[in-house]
Amino acid sequence: MLGNAAIAQGAYEAGVKVSAAYPGTPSTEISEYIAKYPEVYAEWSPNEKVAMEVAIGASIAGVRAMASMKLVGVNVASDPLYSISYAGVNGGLVLVAADDPGIYSSQNEQDTRMVARAAMVPVLEPSDSEEARVFTKLAFTYSEAYDTPVIVRTTTRLSHSQGVVHPEEREEIPDKPYVKNIEKNVLMPANARKRHIVVEQRLKQMAEDACSFDINHVEYRDKKIGVITSGIPYQYVREALPDASVLKLGLVHPLPRKLIEEFAAQVDTLYVVEELEPVIEEQIRAWGIPVIGKEIFTVQGEYSANMLRRAILKEEITLTKPAAAPQRPPILCPGCPHRSVFSVLKKLKLHGAGDIGCYTLGAVAPLNVVDFNVCMGASISTLHGMEKAKGKDYVKNWVALIGDSTFMHTGVNSLMNMVYNQATGTVIILDNSTTGMTGHQDHAATGKTLQGDPTYAINIYHLCKAMGIDYLGLISSGTMIIAAENGEKLAERL
After folding, report:
1. In three state form, how does the secondary structure of 336-366 look?
2. Residue 102 near residue 156, CB atoms below 8 Å
3. Could you give the angle at the alpha carbon of 76 between the alpha carbons of 73 and 81, nearest 5°?
4. Shortest CA distance to 74 belongs to which of 95, 91, 90, 88?
5. What domains, with CATH codes, occur in the chain?
6. pLDDT in tens, 332-357
7. pTM, 2 dp
């Protein structure tokens, strides 16, 4: 199974009844696979915050629930995540967070383990497809046992590689009764202060218990070299250092201190091999244990067996030089309506404030229209900020560019802000009626649910009109919408 398919299988086997997500590479396929199980209600939510809140609501009601998203989606979902950590759960609650070492499809290379530490949420990290299935099931068990949401952290390499799995039957978990509990579930300051104490005690207890968890296990071999690792890097360690002793961590937060101390005492030289940030390494150093980590390993990109051979064994690795081939950067799909829009904008010598999606490709040759992009929904807000900084005349040569799915994600609030604060910039909503870059998923304006059922399609034109925008132009049967004070002239030229 694909790693993402195995996660879906594990959630199904765990008796999950509700799954919510917003598509984002490398997490998208989790929801596409779980939607195939009729026992699970699965949805595309407008954004990750909503998806997390839907899963929280299902958990409060007493069923097992899951939210899935990519690394930057965790930022969007962090508000409810930090709070539900204090409140705890009723039915098991799991967040699957797909990180992207190497930045294959993201704006940055952030490490979700850092977020989990700040939010005080446990993290499980599988290293292959079978563990993805098993750890996902186990996450729901831990969630209910310790009264906490649990994060299953995956990465692009695990999400999109395949391995042998051993599917099991679905567990039919009885719904837990809902019991009104104001002190636990209503996080006003007086209650939250008490819950903070509970959270700290919970993590301390889990760290002690983790020393005997099967997913944290020691593999003693030659004790000259000892390696502490987790996730996909475990595979590289076993390939590059087959004779080394290894402490493989399945639970990477909180860490099993006693187990780590015992392992460290048994080996001559201790290494921590982890991609991205030195999350494990820093905690081990703080306990006074000598360890070698980021002084010889990079904090950037994916690791490999050859990288470990060079760094630890000092081997000279001679790689075959790849054949010379012309670069083939990504381009807009043939027939994409965005292409003609960008071509006209280029002829008009306009600058584009970009957003997240296919239209980022408008930044590269031969289009060269998009000047910058930040995050989902930011094109409209950044254009607004430019106008407030430099005045109306400054933004007459600028347009904000946003797709229909991204507009539904967080663009609506940004446009609302422009209207409320009397901005005059031009916004182009490139409506191709799909979530294009992640593989053509539906959203709230397409008229179809994740499970293929027909539903009400939010009318973007009427939604913008309801905000009170003075000029609203509809072009090419809904291909795009222009909303601006100076939009009429631009619409005519387009």
Report:
1. CHHHHHHHHHHHCCCEEECCCCHHHHHHCCC
2. yes
3. 100
4. 95
5. 3-210 (3.40.50.970), 217-313 (3.40.50.920), 337-493 (3.40.50.970)
6. 887 777 888 888 899 999 999 988 88
7. 0.92
